[in-house]
Amino acid sequence: MVETIERIEKCEKHSIEYTASVMVFRDREIITECPECQKETEQKVIADELAEQKAHERRLLAIDFERSGIPPRYTTRNFDNFRSATDEQKKAWRMAKDYAETISEKMQSGAGLILAGKPGTGKTHLACAVANHYMHKGGNALFITVTAMIRRIRETYQKGSNKTEQQAINELRNVDLLIIDEIGVQKGSESEEHLLFEVINERYNHFRPTILISNLNAQEIKKFIGERALDRMREGGGKFVSFEWDSYRSNVAGDDQLPNADQALYQSTNVVRVNDGWGGKRI
Ligand SMILES: Nc1ncnc2c1ncn2[C@@H]1O[C@H](COP(=O)(O)OP(=O)(O)OP(=O)(O)O)[C@@H](O)[C@H]1O
Ligand SMILES: [Mg+2]
Ligand SMILES: [Zn+2]
User: Fold this and answer.
1) What's the rounded mean pLDDT across residues 207-229?
2) Considering the chain, what percentage of its residues have pLDDT values greater than 90?
3) Is 20 in the same domain as 151?
4) How far is the CA of 17 from the centre of ligand 3 (A)?
5) Are residues 21 and 88 in the same domain?
6) Does the beta carbon of 249 lie inside 6 Å of ligand 1?
7) Is residue 282 scored above 70 in pLDDT?
């Protein structure tokens, strides 16, 4: 037999008196909390739910980022933590930021971006800032080096490959935003140049924007990717940005705005794969 009575209770924590409902069950009493305690409990439940939701979103984003190929170091690079001391740096920052802010137009025009210049000057930083900005808004991007891209296509030539060359190229074509890094690091053979042209041309034909990153200068890039590919990169307002200043790499460790591995969106060696029932955007 359960009996409920009302009784004046005192909350020690909030030092208030209140009318509590007291449920008497055998030799036990269940007493309702004071209104202030109730409020706190409700707020804690909401806060816990929010934290859980945030953690869930972060896990999904981490999976997204791992699939994007953006290296962990660069998942934390954005427009706010790029420092521009000189006019040239400001210009490079502005051009990359403009590109990110008009990314939906780029998805219509396919206009590309070429970031070229000296090592350590922030080319990969700014390209990833564009990708990060886009991905945080729900877009899909793929970051890949030329070498890895060529390998990915060539893997399909092997016996037992479950993909054709065309399928591999189509995957690279279908990504909304493709970033190809380290153009010209390795001396390209004629067949490599041809594959690079294939990818750029396929994307061009489908109005898909591509960002190229290189240590070569304009003239050398033209030689490396070929005039026809370069011409396609320029169409629809494609831009070329020069990075001709000293490397920032020796400053990275002392820059407290540049996060370390523990803040990266995923760790390439220790990825937790969770099944959130999320189908993912296949690339
Ligand atoms: N202006 C800057 N402000 C803040 N951090 C920067 C800046 N430039 C570069 N960095 C940081 O310095 C490191 C090297 O930059 P990044 O990798 O983008 O150089 P890069 O131009 O791609 O060089 P490389 O041609 O050798 O690949 C990164 O950690 C990057 O975040
Ligand atoms: Mg780089
Ligand atoms: Zn209370």
Assistant:
1) 94
2) 82
3) no
4) 9
5) no
6) yes
7) no
